[in-house]
Design goal:
The protein is mainly α. The chain is 63% helix and 2% strand.
Length: 296
């Protein structure tokens, strides 16, 4: 399974998504942002699809492959002659064109014939993870890791699934192993940092987010969480500077809105000693901090 650092997974893990990831990630949003960004039933959002595709070899299937009426889709079982790698590409092509049901049918058929293939298991597990079908996702990731124990993206995604079951120690063990195998894997570092943040291990979280930034300065999500950690450590000016850097490179309008609101809270807090308004600012900052406590 090719390593794609997940530009954007929970994934994957998006990483496989980062399904995401992979593997996953960006940082967790507010309830309002989540509601606005939630995909329609049976679909993957563009961001989720992007994270899945970055975690596997890009499809070489021509864009009009499914409209030709010949080749493997011309008659009989369209996938009977395809091996696991080709089936992954066909499934990704279906996803890229909004056909989640067909993608799942392809993956299910492939896993019936190749039950131990880690790529097929990984991509199906990533889709389950994105749609919060955690038990099914865990089953696929465990099957994939049985066949390929050192697959870092499968480890990241299983860790995210463990977190969904509050199995924190197991999640941390998977992330530690992924980082030992590949120290610069952003998906693993980001998700471990988010886990540390949720456990209030702020210095450990800071180290992981700073490592993410050093590996990929143009990835926005680690900068958001790094800013939150810096603020929690009492380094407000550094937090403000980091959040401003986030705003310069972030592409999501909803996340830019969250960042601007957070900056306003911090700046209000900086003025509070003069105006006697610190209480409200502290309450708002505490609520905003919770948004970065998990990886997507």
């Amino acid at each position: 399974m090719g390593v794609a650092a997940v530009k954007g997974m929970r994934i994957v893990a998006a990483a496989m998504l980062g399904v995401s990831a992979a593997a996953t990630w960006p940082p967790a949003s507010s309830a309002e942002t989540d509601k606005a960004a939630k995909p329609q039933a049976g679909t993957l959002s563009p961001e989720e699809l992007d994270r899945i595709q970055k975690s596997f070899p890009q499809s070489t299937v021509p864009k009009d492959f499914f409209r030709r009426g010949k080749g493997p889709h011309g008659s009989g079982d369209p996938h009977a002659a395809l091996g696991p790698g080709k089936l992954v590409k066909v499934a990704l092509q279906h996803l890229s064109e909004g056909r989640r049901a067909e993608a799942m049918k392809t993956l299910n058929s492939g896993i019936e014939r190749y039950p131990d293939d880690p790529q097929l298991r990984g991509i199906r597990g990533s889709i389950y993870l994105q749609h919060k079908e955690f038990a099914k996702a865990l089953s696929d990731f465990e099957a994939g890791l049985k066949a390929r124990p050192d697959d870092v993206l499968l480890l990241v995604n299983r860790a995210q699934t463990y977190r969904s079951f509050n199995r924190t120690d197991e999640a941390l063990a998977d992330l530690n192993r992924a980082i030992k195998l590949q120290p610069d894997l952003v998906a693993a570092r980001f998700n471990r940092g988010a886990l540390y943040l949720s456990l209030r291990k702020l210095e450990e979280a800071r180290a992981d987010f700073e490592h993410c930034v050093s590996v990929d300065p143009h990835e926005a999500a680690p900068r958001f969480n790094l800013a939150i950690v810096l603020a929690e450590l009492g380094k407000r000016e550094e937090a403000i500077a980091e959040m401003e850097r986030f705003l310069k490179i972030a592409r999501s309008d909803s996340w830019k809105k969250v960042a601007r609101e957070q900056l306003a809270v911090w700046r209000e807090g900086a003025r509070a000693p003069e105006k006697g308004e610190g209480g409200g600012a502290r309450e708002k900052a505490s609520a905003a901090k919770d948004k970065a406590g998990k990886a997507n």
